[in-house]
Structures are given as structure tokens and as C-alpha cells.
Write a structure and sequence with these properties.
Rossmann fold, 2 domains, six-stranded parallel sheet, three-stranded antiparallel sheet, 16 helices, 16% strand, CoA-Trfase_III_dom3_sf, CoA-transferase_III_domain, CoA-Trfase_fam_III
């Protein structure tokens, strides 16, 4: 393998999304990621379908969900609750640089696989724990899932239409955004710890919690509250601090108008035949537009209905204001810019023939990401990885019969 993290070994004891998202990032960067899974079952998301992905012979195998977060890894099956399985895991720990796990708080301590125990085996180990609520605080022992955290962390309170309009009420985001953000924060923390180790020679424990990440990711909405004392509410797809910045209905559908400054607003008004609107004292600055959004938005909506999606998008390009279609996912991958950025990749697979997967958004000039290793089948690399530890074929067979691998 090649890449920025070539030579770095990662033990991935995580499953579902937040942990695997982080370790997939590390795999994309060139690390050797060994995914440790339960014999006979594996990562929960292997069963989270339909849809399921068919093998080259047409047999349905793992769920499509699993494929979003596990490319570039090697899979081994290992039951570390058995003494034989734990012994193998400790041998892997001794050679690893990073371990990522998302067991419940204290879940690994009873097996002697917590950070304090493993740091004695490998003092250079960077051990990243991902949980719902972290390793401290009154909620530490509670299980946490993305939708629950979106609710508890405030995201659902600012997502969705207001209660006063039809269909109003709190909404979760259409993807498990807290899991994804947690995976990204975990990756950043791991890379920082990896650099710190070059200075100190020592590993460390990283405690990343979904709730912490959600609170941190409230971004401007949190700042608005903390600095003003005003609790943000739901505005649908409108923006609390920028106007106009929301979907508008056109003659044949909807576009997203995202006006970021007064110059763009003037260009839009002139294009819409509403040039005087940009000079109106009620709307001449963004602050005034926010204060008077209820008067402005209906005026703009009248003009938006006069043209089609394609007409508005072309006018936006010609006149310098941000406006775009609200694409369905099939149209996203048909978009010529998305195609030019190579955001869909075809990865060869012995089991599946080939797989169409989403590419990483990270583009490197010197250590480019290589898409040569598809998400592994369950236990695909068990014998290979154990052989690298010096475990002979006879011993591997004994481990299999004992159910340890």
C-alpha cells in the first residue's frame, strides 16, 4: 500500500458508521487497517439492508450500507472473549500504531482491552474510543445512536419547518451526520496524536463522544445563542442570519438561492427585473433583509415563478449570484462537475466483479489515494493477517475449530 500514512497499522474494533468512517479515512490515507469482526456475524451494517450487493454470481451478500465506510481495509474474524482470541489480539496490538473502538463505556475493560491495559503491551499505541456520551459525565454508560444525538444535541430543534406551517416539526438530517462528523473529528484527533508521538515517543487515549461533536457542530447557531441569549428555532431551509438563502419555487420545480452578500443581491435583483429592490432601505443590507424577510421573500417568490430551473441557473452563472438545482442523488452523480472531480470510483473486486463507490474528497498531489482494495468480505484476510504474526496453518486451523477466529 502507498499513501501519506504508508506503514501505519490500524486495528479497527469499531462497527456501524462513526468508527468505520474514521478508519476508512485512515485507509484512504494509506494506513493498513485491519478490521476485527465477530465470527459469523461481523459489522452490524453488513445486515442493514435492503439493498444488498450481489456477488458476481448474482448471490446477495452484504448490505450496501456496509460499503460506504469500509473500503481499503482487511477483515479478520476474532473472538477476543476467548483466551485464544485475546492472545491473538494482543499480538496485533503489540505491532499496531492505532486502535479505534466504539464499544460502550467500560465494555472492553472487563476483557483487559481498555487503554490502560493495552498501553502496557504497547506504550506507543494511540487508542481512540468513540462513544455516544464519552468516558466521563452522568450519561457515560448510556448507549448513543445518531438520531438520538441529533435530538439531544439540538440539531433537530433547528431542522425542519416551523410549527406554524403545514408539515412543521423537528426533523433529523437525511444522513447520519453526527456519526460522520464524529468520524472526521476522530480522524483529526488520531492524526494529531500520531504527530505528538513523534515528539514524545508515547501514545495516548482519545475520548470522542457523539454528543460533544454534535454540540461543537452547532457552529453559528450555538454562537448566536451563547452571545445573544436568544434560542434559535426552525426556519425550514432558510438561514437565520442571511436572506435570501433558501429554496424558491420556479416554473418547473425548485432551486436553492444562496445570496451571500449585498453585491450578489443587487445582481440577482437586476437579473430578476427588480433592480430598485436592492436600493430599498428595507432590503439594501443583509441585516435589513433579515429583519424584513417576511416582506422580501414573497416578492422574490413572485419573480422566481416566471422562469424554469435551467433558466435561473444559467442566469446565475451569467450574472454572478449563487443559485443551483436541488438535485436528487442520481442527478448528483450525473453532474458534469461531480464527474470531473472523480467522485464516483469503480473498485475491482474478486467477489463482486466491480463496485461503484463514492470517492474520498481529499485530493493529494504527492500521495494520491488509490482505490484498489474493496470493502472486504467477512474474515477475508484472517489467514493472511495471522500468518503475518507468524502463526502457522495448523494453529490457525485449531483456532477456527475453537471458534476463536
Amino acid at each position: 500500500m502507498s499513501g501519506a500514512l504508508n506503514g501505519v497499522v490500524v486495528l479497527d474494533l469499531s462497527r456501524i458508521l462513526a468508527g468505520p468512517w474514521s478508519t476508512q479515512n485512515l485507509a484512504d490515507l494509506g494506513a493498513d487497517v485491519i478490521k476485527v469482526e465477530r465470527p459469523g456475524k461481523g459489522d452490524d451494517t453488513r445486515a442493514w439492508g435492503p439493498p444488498f450487493v450481489n456477488t458476481a454470481e448474482g448471490e446477495p451478500r452484504d448490505a450496501a450500507y456496509y460499503f460506504c465506510a469500509n473500503r481499503g481495509k482487511r477483515s479478520i474474524t476474532l473472538d477476543f472473549t476467548q483466551p485464544e482470541g485475546k492472545k491473538v489480539l494482543l499480538e496485533l496490538v503489540a505491532k499496531a500504531d492505532i486502535l479505534v473502538e466504539n464499544y460502550k463505556f467500560g465494555g472492553l475493560k472487563k476483557y483487559g482491552l481498555d487503554y490502560n491495559s493495552l498501553a502496557k503491551v504497547n506504550p506507543r499505541l494511540i487508542y481512540c474510543s468513540i462513544t455516544g456520551f464519552g468516558h466521563t459525565g452522568p450519561y457515560a454508560e448510556r448507549p448513543g445512536y445518531d438520531a438520538l444525538i441529533q435530538a439531544m444535541g439540538g440539531l433537530m430543534s433547528i431542522t425542519g419547518e416551523p410549527d406554524t406551517v403545514p408539515g412543521g416539526g423537528p426533523q433529523k438530517v437525511g444522513v447520519a451526520v453526527v456519526d460522520i462528523l464524529t468520524g472526521l473529528y476522530a480522524t483529526s484527533a488520531i492524526l494529531a496524536a500520531l504527530y505528538a508521538r513523534t515528539q514524545t515517543g508515547q501514545g495516548q487515549h482519545i475520548d470522542v463522544a457523539l454528543l460533544d461533536v454534535q454540540v461543537a457542530s452547532l457552529a453559528n447557531q450555538a454562537s448566536n445563542y451563547l452571545l445573544s441569549g436568544k434560542v434559535p428555532g426552525r426556519l425550514g431551509s432558510a438561514h437565520p442570519s442571511i436572506v435570501p438563502y433558501q429554496p424558491f419555487q420556479c416554473a418547473d420545480g425548485y432551486v436553492m438561492l444562496a445570496i451571500g452578500n449585498d453585491t450578489q443581491f443587487k445582481a440577482f435583483c437586476e437579473t430578476a427585473g427588480y433592480g430598485g429592490l436592492a436600493e430599498d432601505e428595507r432590503f439594501s443590507t443583509n441585516a435589513q433583509r433579515v429583519a424584513n424577510r417576511d416582506q422580501l421573500v414573497p416578492l422574490l417568490q413572485e419573480r422566481m415563478l416566471l422562469k424554469t430551473i435551467d433558466q435561473w441557473c444559467q442566469l446565475a452563472i451569467e450574472n454572478g449570484f449563487p443559485c443551483g438545482p436541488i438535485n436528487t442523488i442520481d442527478r448528483v452523480f450525473e453532474d458534469p462537475h461531480v464527474q470531473a472531480r472523480n467522485m464516483r470510483v469503480e473498485v475491482p473486486s474478486e467477489t463482486y466483479g466491480s463496485l461503484n463507490l463514492v470517492a474520498s474528497p481529499m485530493k493529494f498531489s504527492g500521495t494520491p489515494i488509490e482505490y484498489t482494495t474493496p470493502p472486504p468480505t467477512l474474515g477475508q484476510h484472517t489467514e493472511q493477517v495471522l500468518g503475518e504474526l507468524g502463526i502457522d496453518a495448523q494453529t490457525i486451523e485449531s483456532l477456527k475449530k475453537a471458534g476463536a477466529v
